[in-house]
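User: Fold this one for me? It's Flavodoxin-like domain-containing protein.
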Amino acid sequence: MKSLIVYCSSHGTTEKVVGLLSENLEGEVLSVDLKKEKTVFDLKDFDTVLIGGSIHAGTIQRRIKQFIKNNHDELLEKDLGLFLCCMREGDLAIEQFNHAFPQDLRKNSAALGLFGGEFLVSKMNFFERQVVKKVDSIISDQSNLDVEAIKEFASRLNRLRNLV
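Assistant: Here's what I get for Flavodoxin-like domain-containing protein.
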């Protein structure tokens, strides 16, 4: 079984999550950061596709939205997993997740994940630091990544693939 993880990572948090997913998924895994890499791949080569990103100013990265738009119909035919890194919790996190991914993909997904997030102030530019300070009163690095949720997400996908 081959899995593709397509993601965008601005400051490294989503990349950390992808590393944990790759370690916990069975079979061959290719991960592609749409923000950095120009890796050429064909979705037809993969049984499972995971798509993830993070929330910045209330929305997921533009490249993730574009990838979904460009591959929407083919994604509906895959074993799909969608995940999001964000610092919000509860209803606001769910709202951000629902806004990030189209409803039909969410309904078609074998696994949905909200993994918490990080404010990596040390990696932010001046503008980002000012926004985070003003909106959230954050002035130093903070993390609330949910490692157990990441492992459970991978486990759910592994169980699905073992049923096939």
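One thing worth pointing out: The two ends are 10 Å apart (CA to CA).
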